[in-house]
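FAQ: What does the model actually see?

It sees only this:
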Amino acid sequence: WFTGAVTPGERGTAVVVGHVDVPGGRAVFYDLGALRKGHRVEIARRDGRTAVFTVHGVEVVPKEGFPAERVYGDSGAPELRLITCGGTFTEENGYAGNVVVSARLSEVR
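And it is asked to produce this:
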């Protein structure tokens, strides 16, 4: 994790960003938009523990006018945001938006 960033499971909003695709095909977050409310996401931490989050929202937001404070802001609780490209794709401009998955901490084990 970046120095100064929130570790998943700690108070604050942890953010993980990954590609949806690459020139050769699928990338790490190819199926991110298929997550739904109630799905669980597990993050293996450097300390050997696993932070388990429950999805409470999945949305596609436009890159123009991206709601940075809402997505990255500190909610006061341990939360997770998973972000990748999404929406309409054109060769000229790439993806018009971002898929943003929001999840709340369920447990750390």
